[in-house]
Amino acid sequence: MRRLFAAAALIAALTGLAWGGLQWWQASRRPTSVLLISVDTLRADRLGSYGYAAARTPHMDALAARGLRFAQATTVVPLTLPAHTSLMTATFPPFHGVRDNGGFYVDEAQVTLAEVLKARGYRTAGFVGAFVLDRRWGIAQGFDHYVDNFDLSTFDMTAGLDAAQRPGREVVDAALPWLTGPDPTPFFAWVHLYDPHSPYAPPEPHRSQFPATLEGAYDGEVAEAATQLGRLVSALGAAGRLDSPNLVVVSDHGEGLGGHGEQQHGFFIYDEATHVPFLMAGPGIAPRVIPDQVRIVDVMPTVLDLLGVAGPTVMQGTSLVPLLRGEALTLLAYSETFYPRYHYGWSELQSMRDGQYKFIAAPRRELYDLAADPGETRDLAAEQPRRADALERAVREFARQMAAAATPQVPRSVDPETARQLQALGYVAGPMTRAVLDERPRGDPKDKIGLYNLLKRAAQDSVTGQWDEGIRTVESVLRDDPAVVEAHTMLGNMHSKAGRLPLAIAAYQQALALDAEHEGAAWSLALAYRDAGNEAAARAGFERVLQLNPRGARPLYQLAEAAVRRSAFAEAIRLLSQGLTLAADRPAFLVKLAEAHLARTEIDAAERALTDAIEARPTQAMAHYNLALVHEARGRRDAAAEAYRREIANSPSLYQPHFNLARLLQAQGRAAEALAEYARAVELSPTFGTGHLFLAKARFDAGDFAGAAQSARAGHAATNEAAIAPLGPIEQADRYARQGRDAEA
User: Fold this and answer.
1) Gap between the Cα atoms of 73 and 290, Å rounded
2) Element housing 349 (H / E)
3) Three-point CA angle 263, 269, 270, nearest 5°
């Protein structure tokens, strides 16, 4: 009974039964607005206010000096989307179900802080610096204004979802007009700064302020994030708004920086990745350091308590207002990472932290005394088995209760006939069960950190184009552990980049043989089939990806592109319209939709789609190009030429706008300018046969017979279009005739 009571007390401490302090706060001045700043990948011990002497974080330190600094704040998971989901809903990952970046979504049934405050009349806005917080993942619920708008075509997404990011300066630039505008309505604003996340590339002056090492570069990025926070605070002050909002600064997780063998984050849940800074300042909040254990799930109930706003009953965090008046709270911090399980097939990790002791549930469990051993270097699980037993029971019971109360995110099954067709193409290898949910013995991440680091090194080789070196590294991992799905997928990615499509296809098929529902492998296999010219297999693959993830827009886009290629424009329009109902890359979908409408000569519909695309993202690739086609269809040649020039400015690597602009210039008698644009088009696309042939004609007209002959030969060799291929010999014949060489002509 004593053990049961102790476990129950632990659960109560975790789920926040001590929410109070509202009447005390209502007697004082209430702040009217809230500015929440989340700094991604920020370790607590890299700020000056947390004791780091080398830090250059004066703005954060000043905020800590005039408000609250929570010395022992813990995140729930060292991954961006799951941690921010907990931050915004005050619930733990086993409940809200978001366990990783990508492939998981914040369910509409979850109630966010933005939704609660919007319902109370607050203006709400979010400004994020990473694609993993794009609205398509559901995290934008409750925000009137949400600035994500990532143009994925400008990033190398093979490096991972986190490759799509923007500097904190750009995020703050977007936020400042909204924050300092004339509207006096109380607001809730969230500004997300991604700078400390890898790759570490701090701008000056911070680059020069630290050693030229990985840790020095990380510190420089932290300094840049602090500088951007300072810009926000200064702007609020200049606008006369600094005395009204509550300011909350917190991180979603830390960074390994080599601790326990992990350079970055997500793999382990030691304190270097889970101990985060948490600062609060605002009217009526006296300066104080809070030594008690707190969690990021406590942010939402605390903010609502300070505002006098009732929160949803489902909140599992606790208001920290009692700590503001000197009372104590006994809170336990639960953390987890399922990253090793989802990506590599190894065991997940779960932990419980009470401020002094931390227990990690793993195949070989761990226990640390954080007061005596803050670096978690001495495992006490064998020396203190009773304490470890109690904390392990609390971890298991807590996770069980949370999961039982939640609606899990699971994949859908497919019908037997579809399964047989997919099987023949290598998409599945057995029953449609999710491999990551199988309960079986799994490798301890402590034992796999060496393999994990090899895979991270191979991923970097892939980004830098050293594919053969990366392939050798991945193959060495697979010799040690052939069941690592992610390794097979990486192998396929590198073979694909190197142009070895049969080897890539085989690697993706092997990944799917291990996990039939691995969305990444299914997606990559479909792309490989597409690039190999197997349209039927690619189409089946993209449909499989859509079945695995009905909320995913990218397979719809690929299916629409395939429909356009086979001139099934009505089908393409249907697919693209369906994609626009999802939280997709809207400008890209609108441009492709316009192309389908243009093919059907539906000029008005095409123009509407392009206008919307350009309004949402003025630099969207091919938007101005297609708008130029609309102008041409309406006889507006000057407007078309200007639109082609806009496209060239936005997309300097595209050859199409140069070619079409050259045609317009040639029609206007501007031969020299046209010739230059034709030349630029074939320079950008040397295999563009039609471009070579038009360049041959322009050179011939300019009297450059030798150049014309060279271009004609290149065009004739590069094109097999029946309507255009004869131009090569005709150009040569014309040249001979003008030179009096009749027999050759």
Assistant:
1) 10
2) strand 349-353
3) 75
CA 429 to CA 422: how far, in whole Å?
9
Which spans in 100-213 are helix H? 113-119, 168-179, 206-209
Q: Tell me what the mean pLDDT of segment 46-53 comes to.
A: 96
- Measure the CA–CA gap between 281 and 211, rounded to whole angstroms: 32
Confidence band, pLDDT 50/70/90 cuts, at residue 409: low
Q: List, in order, residues 6 or more apart from 580 with CB less than 8 Å away.
A: 586, 589, 590, 593
Sign of torsion, CA 459 460 466 468? negative
Q: Which helix (H) or strand (E) holds 70?
A: strand 68-74
Phi/psi at 534 (nearest 5 deg)?
-90, 80
Torsion of CA 579, 581, 585, 587, to 10 degrees: 100
Angle among Cα 305, 311, 314 to the nearest 5 degrees reads: 130
Between 94-103, 289-298, 594-603, the lowest mean confidence (pLDDT) is in 94-103
Our measurement of the distance from residue 438's CA atom to the centroid of its chain's CA atoms, rounded to an integer in Å, reads: 27
Which residue would you say has higher pLDDT here, 154 or 372? Answer: 372
Give the amino acid at 94.
P
**Which residue would you say has higher pLDDT here, 585 or 139?**
139
246/233 Cα distance (integer angstroms): 11
How far is the C-alpha of 194 from the C-alpha of 169, rounded, in Å?
Answer: 10
Contacts with 559 (C-beta within 8 Å, 6 or more apart), sequence order? 539, 542, 543, 546, 575
Q: What is the DSSP string of 641-655?
A: HHHHHHHHHH-TT-S
> What was the pLDDT predicted at 743?
87
Q: How many C-alpha atoms does 635 have within 13 Å on its Cβ side?
A: 0
Judged against a pLDDT cut of 50, whether residue 680 lies above it is answered with: yes
Report how many helices (DSSP H) and strands (DSSP E) the chain contains, helices first: 32, 13
Report in angstroms the alpha-carbon separations of 328 from 139, 156, 193, 294: 32, 48, 32, 11
Residue with tokens 């086993």: 94
Query: 388 versus 440: which is more confidently predicted?
Result: 388
Helix, strand, or coil (residue 68): strand
Query: Which runs of consecutive H residues, i.e. helices, occur in 464-601?
Result: 467-480, 485-497, 501-514, 519-531, 535-548, 554-565, 569-580, 586-599
Cα separation, 642 vs 649, whole angstroms: 11
* Total residue count of the chain as it appears in this document: 745
pLDDT given for residue 466 in this prediction? 93
Cβ atoms of residues 310 and 244 within 8 Å = no
How far, in Å, CA of 387 to CA of 381, rounded? 8
Residue 77 has pLDDT above 60, yes or no: yes
Alpha carbon of 195 to those of 218, 228, 456: distances in Å?
Answer: 9, 10, 20
Tell me what percent of the residues of the chain surpass a pLDDT of 90. Answer: 69
| C-alpha–C-alpha distance, residues 692 and 556, integer Å | 35
Burial 143-175 (b: 16+ CB within 10 A, else e): beebbbbbeeeebeeeeebbebbbbbbebbebb
Look at residue 205 and tell me whether its pLDDT is greater than 80.
Answer: yes
| Alpha carbon distance 249, 225 (integer Å) | 11
- The amino acid occupying position 455 is L
Angle between helices 501-514 and 519-531 (to 10 degrees): 160
Nearest to 422 by CA among 411, 432, 437, 412: 432
518 vs 187: CA distance, rounded Å: 41
233-to-36, 191, 248 alpha-carbon distances in Å: 12, 12, 11
Question: In angstroms, rounded to a whole number, what is the distance separating the alpha carbons of residues 292 and 72?
Answer: 6
Based on C-alpha coordinates, what's the Rg of the chain?
Answer: 29
Q: Copy the structure tokens of residue 637.
A: 């040649």
Phi, psi of 78 (to 5 degrees): -85, 50
